[in-house]
Amino acid sequence: MKTTIKLVVRDWDYMVPLALGDVRSSDFEIEVHRVGTVPDDLATNPRYDAGEMSFSRYALARARGDTSIVGVPHFLMRAFRHRCIITSAHSPLTEVQQLAGKRIGLTGWQDSGNVWTRAILRQVGIGVEDAQWFVGRLTAEHPIVDRLNGYGRPGRIEAVPGERPMVELLRTGELDAVFTPFMPPGFFNPDSGLRQLLPHCRQTEVGYFKSTGYVPGIHVLGIKPAVVAAHPGLPHALSELLDESSRIWLEKRQKYADTTPWIIDELQQTARDLPASWNRNGYRENEQMITDFGRELHAQKITRKCLSARELFPSISR
After folding, report:
1. Domains of the chain (ranges plus CATH)?
2. N or C: which end of the chain has fewer CB within 10 A?
3. pLDDT tens across 199-213, in order?
């Protein structure tokens, strides 16, 4: 009888083959639980054995010496971050360099994606001390929660006054830009009043890939240690199953390219701009990206120590 592994993930479309059983394991039964928001603390959640988790949260746990999750260098969410900087449609800002001294909103200070976005600013000489930061909810529909997580600094890093939605503050000019992983509702409408900061995000992101060699990892695969102890082969097997699900999904998108009018153009453009290995998982394939993330956490004073790739993924790196 197969062991059932309860896996919690966001509702990524590449998970469909695994969720429907098109991808199967000879050793494990994978029970896929799709959620809108991943659990804050996978280690203490009794419902799941493994799942998608914030790379930053995982790294911070490792920095504290917390070994309650076995991290696997399989990145369920990867994303360029240049496109995640938005501003008002009428803003004169069109370059990252112009954010020096500006009022910038973020949806969470320690969030993996925002760590990578601040890294983009650091590349052009804009550090934490070179802007005013406001952390809060993107829209009125988002919950009011603590998004500073202890990293607030009066006059430099603060909660949005009155917990007002940051989209409203962009429209009124009270914020110059906002970093957000997902676009607010209506953003893609011509009359949204919002736009991405960079007029040519794609070219900038392709240049970023050519200089770094990777698309930044945002969410990582985590497994409870007791499950790994009982099934030592699970980390590798689960990573392979996820890769196979992604491969089948892409193969079907290439065949059924009529789901949107121009998805075939996107597939062609991606093939031209990036190597086929752009989203390859594994320690060796992602060591440089993992190393850079550890350095950014330290440089941005989120961790006291600069964590190496081996320290972040000790069992896998061995």
Report:
1. 3-79+216-317 (3.40.190.10), 82-212 (3.40.190.10)
2. N
3. 999 999 999 999 999
